[in-house]
Write a structure and sequence with these properties.
- There is one protein chain.
- With 173 residues, the chain is an all-alpha fold.
- Among the domains are: 61 residues, DnaJ domain (Helix Hairpins), CATH 1.10.287; 60 residues.
- The protein is 81% helix and 0% strand.
- The protein contains six helices and no strands.
- Helix 3 runs antiparallel to helix 4.
- The longest helix is centred in the C-terminal third of the chain and has 55 residues.
- One of its GO terms (cellular component) is spliceosomal complex.
- InterPro entries: DnaJ_domain (IPR001623), J_dom_sf (IPR036869), Pre-mRNA-splicing_ERAD (IPR052094).
- It comes from Aromia moschata.
- Its main location: cytoplasm.
């Protein structure tokens, strides 16, 4: 039997006995299971030999006091870890639910819960604001260009008027 396979098995469950069973109970359960999965009794089952060998290893460990004590300690640790993990999952779930409730309370409806109509209205309003900014910028640009052209036109007229008056003073027509 693989060492990794040993770690995955619950020996007591394999023999269908309680963890507090005596050596006599363990041997009795082993004989019962061994008869069921012995390769001679199950010639068509390719896994019968492996299963029988696993049962022999289980018997060897559970009938040795030191090995059984070590196995029981490991098994107890695994069961406690599984229980802690299960409880932790419950705690995490509760914490998550509490956090989401506080967020909903603080922010009202969450973004995910907004209706499609509400999202569309918000998008239209955003575009309208951006569009009006662009229109305002365009209007300012046109006004600036008009002022520049008017200023240029006034400057041109000033020079034309000055030139004409200077020519008149000099007697030129």
């Amino acid at each position: 039997m693989d060492d990794s396979k040993i770690e995955d098995l619950d020996f007591y469950e394999e023999l269908e006995i309680d963890i507090n069973s005596t050596i006599i109970d363990i041997k009795k359960a082993y004989r019962k299971k061994a008869l069921q999965c012995h390769p001679d009794k199950n010639p068509n089952d390719a896994n019968a030999g492996k299963k029988f060998h696993e049962l022999s290893k289980i018997l060897e460990i559970l009938t040795d006091e030191a090995a059984r004590a070590a196995y029981d300690k490991v098994l107890k640790g695994k069961k406690e870890a599984a229980l802690r993990h299960k409880e932790l999952d419950g705690k995490r779930r509760k914490l998550k639910e509490d956090l989401e409730a506080r967020e909903r309370q603080a922010f009202g409806k969450s973004f995910k819960q907004k209706s499609a109509d509400q999202l569309l209205k918000e998008e239209i309003e955003r575009l309208r604001k951006e569009g009006s900014k662009q229109v305002e910028e365009e209007v300012e640009y046109v006004k600036r260009k008009l002022r520049e052209e008017q200023q240029q036109h006034l400057n041109t007229e000033y020079w034309d008027v000055n030139e004409t008056s200077n020519k008149n003073k000099m007697g030129c027509k």
